[in-house]
Structures are given as structure tokens and as C-alpha cells.
Design goal:
With 261 residues, the chain is α/β, with parallel strands linked by helices. The protein has two domains: 2-94 and 205-257, Rossmann fold, CATH 3.40.50; 98-202, Rossmann fold. The protein has eleven helices and ten strands. It has helices at residues 13-22, 44-59, 71-76, 78-85, 98-102, 120-129, 143-148, 152-164, 184-191, 205-215, 249-257, and strands spanning 2-6, 27-32, 65-68, 91-92, 107-112, 134-139, 172-175, 200-202, 230-234, 237-239. The strands form two sheets. Strands 4-3-1-2-9-10 form a six-stranded mixed beta sheet, sandwiched between helices. Strands 6-5-7-8 form a four-stranded parallel beta sheet. Helix 1 (13-22) packs across helix 11 (249-257) and helix 2 runs parallel beside helix 4 (78-85). InterPro entries: Asp/Glu/hydantoin_racemase, Asp/Glu_race, Asp/Glu_racemase_AS_1. It comes from Streptomyces violaceoruber. Keywords: Isomerase. This is Glutamate racemase. GO terms for molecular function: glutamate racemase activity.
């Protein structure tokens, strides 16, 4: 089987690594266009056009499913991408894991890009799935960009700034941008307060990977032969994984787990 993933940049690594863990034999196609980042500040029309180009590049490799591994693109471009590619190609979007995070009540924070924080989309998700939880929206300016470039000092500054805006009694944090999943451990360390119960982090990578398999009628097979290939596309052209990707565990898993073509 072949699973494609798309994002503006390397935020797709977490979902790709999740697919690799579930199906080591799956061929992966990673399609991005980092030169067009960031997508968040763009108009919905601009973002949709960019996302469609990245999706078309992935679709040209004839995958069995396409994961939009980007919260912002899922908000604005998912309908257009589905209208063009489905039903021939199942398209799976990424939604912040607000529902499971809020299920236990208490204080919950959603870390997201400034463009998503306070947006009608996110507010609607909170209204629908927030339940009795006390939900705080936390903007994280600069964090996705720092993660994209492997900027250690920039990541530290952005995480510290967002942690300062996070309630001290927070029980769970929703990672509302796929880039943030690559630095989940650093976020946990910054937010965990002494004497408080262990912080729960809620990400989307595992859920979208599992949904992609369900959409194509495939079962998880984590012990399968690790024979899947890896194709990396940047603006539609075949490329290598960027150096920044290899600074994260997910990138190293993908680089080591299969031959790159």
C-alpha cells in the first residue's frame, strides 16, 4: 500500500512516523512546499491554492490515501481537496484532539498558531467538544517556524512564552499544530508544574494514521517487514529529507526505516 501525507513543511513527520509504526511495509510519499510557509497568515483562497498544489503533487504518485497532516490546511482546504480528489483518493484531515482532552473535565489548554487561536473554527470545536472542561486557547507565535528550521533557541523561546500563558492548574494540553508534536517532550517539560499530576498531551498523529488505514480497509501490522519506501517531494520535485527533519526522532525513524527513492 502507499500512503501520502501533505503539509506546508515538516509538520507531517509525526503522522508519517505513526503510519510507519502501524505499517512498516507501507510506501510513504511526503509532499510539502516549505518555501510557501507560513500558511496561517494567508487568505483562505491563497492557502487553498497552495494546499491544492501540494495535494496534486502527492496524488500524482498514485497513493491509496492522502493525509492532510496540517491543522490549518484541514480547516481551509479540506473541502476543495476532497472535491477534486475523492472518491478515487480518500482524503483524511487533521482535527485538534479537543474531545478526548476535555473528556476528563478540569483545565485544558489548546496550543495553536496565532491564526488558529480564537478562530471561528477552533471556537466551534470547543463549543461542540469542550464539555465541562475549562478551555484556554494559547497562541504560540514563532513555534511552528522554529520547529520547521530546527532552531533550538527559537523553540525554547516560543515554548517558554506559551507556557507562561498556560494556566498553572492545567491538566491536559492539546497540540493544535502538527509541528508541535515534534517537540512534545519539550512542551511537557515546560508546562508540567511541580506537585501536579502528570500532564496529558493530546496529539493527532496516531488518530489520523489509524483513520487512513481504516479508509482503505487495511489493518495495522506493526510487525510487518519494514520494506516500505520513502518518497520526499518539495514543491512537487523529488528531494531528500531536509536536515532539520533529522533533528527529530520522527524524522530519524523515517530515514532509517526504509530506503529513500
Amino acid at each position: 500500500m502507499k500512503i501520502a501525507l501533505m503539509d506546508s513543511g515538516i509538520g507531517l513527520l509525526a503522522a508519517a512516523a505513526a503510519v510507519r509504526r502501524l505499517r512498516p511495509d507501507a510506501e510513504l510519499v511526503l509532499s510539502s512546499d516549505p518555501a510557501s510557509m507560513p500558511w496561517g497568515p494567508r487568505t483562505p483562497e491563497e492557502l487553498t491554492a497552495l494546499a491544492l498544489d501540494v495535494a496534486r503533487a502527492a496524488a500524482a504518485h498514485r497513493p491509496d490515501a492522502l493525509i492532510i497532516a496540517c491543522n490549518t490546511a484541514s480547516v481551509h482546504a479540506l473541502p476543495a481537496i476532497r472535491a477534486e480528489l475523492e472518491p478515487a483518493l480518500p482524503v483524511i484531515g487533521t482535527v485538534p484532539a479537543i474531545k478526548p482532552a476535555a473528556a476528563g473535565g478540569g483545565s485544558v489548554a489548546i496550543w495553536a498558531t496565532p491564526a488558529t487561536t480564537g478562530s471561528p473554527y477552533q471556537r466551534a470545536l470547543i463549543a461542540e467538544f469542550g464539555g465541562a472542561a475549562e478551555v484556554t486557547e494559547v497562541p504560540c507565535p514563532g513555534l511552528a517556524d522554529a520547529v520547521e528550521h530546527g532552531d533550538e533557541a527559537g523553540i525554547d523561546r516560543a515554548v517558554a512564552a506559551a507556557a507562561a500563558l498556560t494556566p498553572s492548574d492545567v491538566r491536559a494540553v492539546v497540540l493544535g499544530c502538527t509541528h508541535y508534536e515534534l517537540v512534545a517532550g519539550r512542551i511537557r517539560d515546560a508546562v508540567q508544574r511541580p506537585g501536579r499530576p502528570p500532564l496529558a498531551l493530546h496529539a493527532s498523529a496516531g488518530a489520523v494514521a489509524a483513520q487512513a488505514l481504516r479508509r482503505i480497509g487495511a489493518d495495522p501490522a506493526p510487525t510487518a517487514e519494514p520494506s516500505g519506501t520513502l518518497t520526499v517531494l518539495r514543491a512537487g520535485s523529488v528531494a531528500a529529507l531536509p536536515d532539520a527533519a533529522l533533528t527529530y526522532a520522527e524524522g530519524r525513524v523515517l530515514a532509517a526505516g526504509a530506503p529513500v527513492r
